[in-house]
Amino acid sequence: MTVTALARNFDGNPNIVTMVTTSSNTDITTAGWFTLPSTVADIELLQNGDFQTAVTDLWLIYYATGIGFYTLDPSTNAFVALSGNAGLSTTLSNGNIFVGNASNVATGVAVSGILAITNAGVTSIPLPSAEILVGNGGGVAAPVAVSGIVSLSNAGVTSIPLTSAHILVGSAGNAAASVALSGDATISNTGVLTIGAGAVTQSKIANNAVDYAQLALDVAATTTVTLTAAQINGMYATPVQILAAQGAGKLILIDSILWDIAFVSAQYASGGAIQAQYGNTVHGAGSPASASIAAATLNGVAASGFIANGSGSATLNAPATVENTAVFLSNATGPFTTGDSTVTLYIRYRVVTPA
């Protein structure tokens, strides 16, 4: 039977009707339930005939899974839960919550979608490994995998996947794209930039950027060389190498040599003009690679300080004679004596390829 018990109190205002039914809360609040043939038959059987009720009656209904107060809507022949109890069940499935259904009745449902809840009330957002929540076209947060030029680990670490030795360059669509560096220069996956052979032509160098005609600039560099007192006193007969040969077809051009002198106790004496030269020629007789310093300038140093050689160009009318040649430091006239100070040389130079 659908209705198993039914009774009406005729002494109240309003009167209270109690009903027991095996139907669910959803069933009894569905239009037409009260006039279903099975419902009418059950009521007539229990009442031995017609059942008298009024619109003002208050119904206390024990339904399949709960109990609640209702009124009967004669226009729909369905029960309407009274506000304040809304047909709330006294039981609730494990991990479920109460949610108002389409009939405005609190109903137990399982939480689904991007949210989960335990029977201890702990909520969580189920999310696939390494995905994030992004609003979709319907304005709803949805899990998606990060893609494009950025990737994301499930530890929250972002990275940009990039092909070895490539760089990111804005594309025609104004988006960062992975490309290989090409043209006049290339780059390694350690960040080392290399200018291609012959890439820097005369047309790519501004006027007066290089003072020497018919020379293509390859490398501009600096280096540091330390001289002992013994080397300075002996470089008349034993020139000291300060720059190594740069290879076939390469010529070293010195811009400047700065002498950082750490004075000890004794000044230098004697000697002769000091000059950087191409090759290991004794007595400072090699082809000049820099301007010279007078012996008196070095001998006059009585405290720590600086002196300098300028650039030299005496042999550049015949550069082939000094290509692939190391640069040495020597002096003319005779050896220096007595000095005990050390020197740090700061050498600025260029390596060029004569045209």
Structure description:
This protein is mainly beta. It folds into 3 domains: 3-110, no CATH class; 169-199, no CATH class; 215-354, Sandwich (Jelly Rolls). It is 7% helix and 39% strand. It is built from 4 helices and 27 strands. The protein has helices spanning 25-28, 37-47, 229-234, 295-299; strands spanning 3-8, 16-21, 58-63, 66-73, 78-81, 96-100, 106-110, 116-117, 123-124, 131-135, 141-145, 151-152, 158-159, 166-170, 176-180, 185-187, 193-195, 215-227, 240-243, 251-262, 269-270, 274-278, 287-288, 305-309, 327-331, 336-337, 342-354. The strands form 10 sheets. Strands 1-2-3-4-5 form a 5-stranded mixed beta sheet. The model is unreliable at 210-217 (pLDDT under 50).
Helix/strand structural class: mainly beta
Q: What value does the average pLDDT take? A: 87
CATH topology value of the largest domain = Jelly Rolls
What count of helical segments does DSSP give? 4
Keywords:
4 helices; five-stranded mixed beta sheet; 27 strands; single chain; 355 residues; mainly beta
Topology, pairings included?
Layout: E1 3-8, E2 16-21, H1 25-28, H2 37-47, E3 58-63, E4 66-73, E5 78-81, E6 96-100, E7 106-110, E8 116-117, E9 123-124, E10 131-135, E11 141-145, E12 151-152, E13 158-159, E14 166-170, E15 176-180, E16 185-187, E17 193-195, E18 215-227, H3 229-234, E19 240-243, E20 251-262, E21 269-270, E22 274-278, E23 287-288, H4 295-299, E24 305-309, E25 327-331, E26 336-337, E27 342-354
Parallel strand pairs: 2-3
Antiparallel strand pairs: 1-2, 3-4, 4-5, 6-7, 8-9, 10-11, 12-13, 14-15, 16-17, 18-27, 19-25, 20-24, 20-27, 21-26, 22-23, 22-25
